[in-house]
# Entry
Amino acid sequence: MEQKKEHPFVTNEEASTRGEKISLNRAIAIIGAGNMGTSLLRGILNAKLAPQNKIIASGTHSAKLEMFSSKWKINHTLDNAEAAQFADIVMLCVKPYTIGKVLDEIKTALREDQLLISIAAGVTIESMQHRIGKNNPIVRAMPNIASTVDEGATAVSFGRFCNEEHQRIAISIFEAVGEVVVVDEHQLDAVTGLSGSGPAYIYMVIEALIDGGVKMGLPRDVSTKLAIQTVLGSAKLVKESNLHPAILRDQVTTPGGTAINAVHELESHGLRSMLINAVATATLKSKELSETINK
Ligand SMILES: NC(=O)c1ccc[n+]([C@@H]2O[C@H](COP(=O)([O-])OP(=O)(O)OC[C@H]3O[C@@H](n4cnc5c(N)ncnc54)[C@H](OP(=O)(O)O)[C@@H]3O)[C@@H](O)[C@H]2O)c1
# Structure
């Protein structure tokens, strides 16, 4: 039986297993060249989705922007409308509270065939659509900080004017910096609670493991190296084996051994409940913030 595909087009991953290179052949504007804007630009260039002369970045600080564009050999402007006009794909990478101002600046310049991709947390597609007053296709994405090292986890949602081509473009861009899932927009709060905020939880786990090693006598640098590699390797094994984490945990818990005793300790302090509650709390907070931003 043929397997159901999640989306009916060729992704970066599928193309690369077939030895093909995907090119979007589109001009791209990156409005807001901060942490995430830089990650996405690096991914776009590494994946050869667009050549440097077809990319423009905009921001508010002239010197910073000049340094940025000369480092990446792309175009730059202090005028967001000019950046938008230049592009087929407009990436909105500014802070959520700046999105409204930026949309006001670019809306007159926007043509309805231009794709808008926003990564601003909490800002709904409907509110952006309303703000520009045009039928542009809009994609809303929630990436995470691991995009910086091409191990990002991004969820995308599509506005009502997005066709398959727009979906393919957005997925290709975020696949250039990691894994992509497609969700309904209302699920983006839960995505924020899980993968958006998740790196913070994992950093705490790593920090605590390091301290555990140090407490038991390991030098800090040794403990740090071991803790990081343990988290990285465990995640890689879950991903590559396709096994349920509980099965992998069972494989490392020898009867009466060290790991099962430690697992009991973690269970007695409610580790799993704590993490479930952390995701739930962050999800509710995201929903609350989103309601305030979109008012
Ligand atoms: N960081 C994360 O882990 C993460 C994860 C998921 C989603 N996001 C979303 O990604 C977005 C960007 O976050 P970030 O962490 O990359 O923030 P950031 O590093 O502060 O970048 C924001 C950039 O926007 C620029 N900017 C500010 N006002 C502008 C304006 N009026 N026009 C054009 N550019 C302007 C700033 O440049 P100037 O200094 O030149 O003004 C800055 O480079 C946010 O909406 C956030 O919700 C971030």
Remarks:
- The chain has 13 helices and eight strands.
- The pocket of NAP is lined by residues 31-37, 58-61, 64, 80, 93-96, 98, 101-102, 119-121, 142-145, 196 (CB under 6 Å).
- The two ends are 48 Å apart (CA to CA).
